[in-house]
Automatic annotation (TrEMBL):
Organism: Schistosoma margrebowiei
Highest taxon, organism lineage: Eukaryota
InterPro entries to which the protein is assigned, alphabetical: LPLAT_7/PORCN-like, MBOAT_fam
Protein name: Protein-serine O-palmitoleoyltransferase porcupine
Membrane topology: Multi-pass membrane protein
Major localization class: membrane
Reaction equations catalysed: [Wnt protein]-L-serine + (9Z)-hexadecenoyl-CoA = [Wnt protein]-O-(9Z)-hexadecenoyl-L-serine + CoA
């Protein structure tokens, strides 16, 4: 029985309060009087009757006991897998530290030996994590990795380091073909529940192999500067490098994606270039790992137990139910992202940025560059729960994936037009998540919403000469209205609109049995129908208003 068929619930709110008092006095006795049932509309089916009994019997005591009984099993189930991942990352980091202490970094043979040992150790730890995850379709994951290893070992684009201008990356085309074939095979030939278990790992592997293939030319340019480049860039080493990058225990199950060029550089040049890896910074990063690990478990508990229970209590209030149901989905996403961030910290991975400043000394212009190391950040929950705009939600939802889509999809498509680049980006994102109608519908909807909001607020900011664009204005902006009272309230109103859209779009990601096998089209349409397709109507009205302006 859906929300529209149960409007009687709010009409009889006062009678339910009396019933709850009787239930508390009788310590859970659910014997309802006939007069009370006579006042209700007809209840269709035994399942609906049980739902009514459940709603009527809820109390603070029962809610707290239910949350407690939910929390312990959930934490036990996730705890050991996360511990295994963190321990694997810490072991790899310890071995890396010991090898670099025992062998000098300036020797060509020693550096090659240390690099190969670290790659092999990463592969072994990744296989251990994959085995412990106990996927029923683990052989598909291994088969995809082996097929891509053979492809990268063949090195069919080995001459691109000497190429100039445009060239055809045949390796990339074959890579996309292999990954698409695996996705189609699993989507239409495998058990949906089992396929849903490995969908996340397959997505991470696809992102890694595409970036690995597209960075091939940059790898050659980097390696050719090394004294041991002849040995390092043999086909066998390239296959070993791919296996190590793909099976890295920190990102095999939950992500995140990280740059293969930076990963390879971190292994080869650890004691030479990566200055922040002192003992003090290492201890600080370990404490941050523990903090992120605990935070991820809090997100998991809130997602699975607290917000889910609140959504059940507010089942008959459609929009409050939609908000907490979508919040449950968002917090489960935070759990995955923060746990992956903690594993990357345990591994000791840092993104490396090169800051250049031009200064003239002795009448000659010199480039003074400085390496800046920053820990990888996967998501920013506060920017999603309290967004300035949907554009910020898209960016901060998964920062590594946003970087991947921008670098490998949006920028190559940008010469064909901004709109085509955006549509291509969201198409690629939908394909990465699998051929699923619900995910595709949500991704395309939020993409269209974000674009409409972006162009509308840009035009509105120009007309009103105010800082009300989708992204915060820089301090040096030329708007005359920056922090006025009405400007702040305009931004708050747009923030509330973004929260409204988020509650609507993610309402179908509930905790029903369908979550274990993926949601179908009718589930999505039914959820949006119950909310009157209001979000789509508001977005369309927003677009018409933009055209009017």
């Amino acid at each position: 029985m859906d929300e529209q068929e149960e409007n009687w619930y709010m009409d009889d709110y006062e009678e339910e309060e009396e019933l709850l008092e009787e239930v508390d006095e009788e310590k859970g006795d659910n014997d309802l009087s006939g007069n009370y049932l006579d006042d209700l509309e007809t209840i269709e089916g035994d399942d609906d009757y049980e739902d009514v009994l459940f709603e009527n019997a809820l109390s603070i005591k029962s809610i707290s006991s239910e949350i407690l009984s939910c929390t312990i099993p959930v934490l036990k189930q996730a705890y050991w897998l996360l511990i295994l991942i963190l321990v694997s990352c810490l072991l790899w980091r310890i071995v890396q530290f010991l090898l670099n202490k025992c062998f000098p970094s300036n020797g060509k043979i020693c550096r090659t030996f240390v690099t190969i040992i670290l790659h092999i150790f990463s592969i072994c730890l990744g296989l251990l994590v994959l085995y412990h995850a106990s996927y029923d379709l683990w052989w598909i994951v291994i088969g995809l990795i082996i097929a891509l290893t053979l492809l990268f070992t063949l090195n069919i684009n080995s001459d691109i380091s000497n190429s100039h201008g445009k060239y055809t990356n045949w390796e990339l085309l074959v890579t996309i073909g292999i990954c698409s074939s695996v996705q189609l095979y699993c989507e239409f030939n495998k058990n949906p529940v089992k396929w849903h278990q490995i969908r996340g790992s397959i997505m991470i592997i696809i992102m890694k192999c595409i970036s690995f293939s597209m960075e091939n030319k940059n790898f050659y340019k980097t390696i050719n500067k090394e004294p041991c480049c002849i040995l390092l860039w043999t086909p066998l080493y390239r296959g070993l490098l791919w296996l190590s990058y793909c099976l890295c225990p920190a990102s095999l199950l939950f992500g995140p994606w990280f740059n293969p060029l930076r990963y390879e550089e971190m292994i080869r040049n650890y004691p030479v270039n990566d200055k922040p890896f002192s003992l003090k910074n290492t201890i600080i990063s370990l404490f941050q790992t523990v903090k992120l690990f605990g935070l991820s478990l809090l997100y998991l508990t809130y997602s699975t137990c607290f917000s889910h229970t609140l959504a059940l209590i507010l089942k008959f209030q459609p929009w409050l139910h939609a908000y907490f149901a979508s919040q449950s989905f968002r917090f489960s996403h935070y759990f995955v992202c923060i746990s992956s961030e903690s594993s990357m910290k345990a591994l000791g991975y840092y993104d490396k940025y090169l800051i250049k400043s031009n200064k003239q000394e002795n009448t000659k212009e010199k480039d003074n560059s400085k390496d800046v190391y920053k820990p990888i950040v996967v998501t920013r929950p506060l920017f999603i729960e309290f967004p300035r705009s949907l554009v910020e939600v898209v960016i901060y939802w998964n920062l590594p994936m946003h970087t991947w889509l921008k670098q490998y999809v949006y920028k190559p498509l940008r010469p064909y037009g901004h709109v085509y680049a955006i549509l291509g980006t969201y198409t690629a994102s939908s394909l990465l998540h699998g051929l699923n109608f619900q995910l595709s519908a949500v991704l395309f909807s939020i993409g269209i919403y974000a674009y409409i909001e972006y162009v509308f607020r840009e035009k509105l900011a120009t007309i009103l000469d105010a800082c009300i664009a989708s992204r915060p204005c820089p301090e040096s902006c030329c708007h005359s209205n920056k922090n006025s009272f009405w400007v702040c309230w305009c931004n708050v109103a747009f923030s509330c609109l973004a929260i409204f859209h988020l509650a609507y779009l993610a309402v179908m990601f509930d905790t029903s049995e369908q979550q274990f096998k993926g949601y179908n089209m009718w589930h999505t349409m039914d959820k949006w129908y119950n909310l009157g397709f209001l979000s789509h109507i508001v977005a369309f009205a927003n677009f018409l208003f933009y055209l009017y302006l």
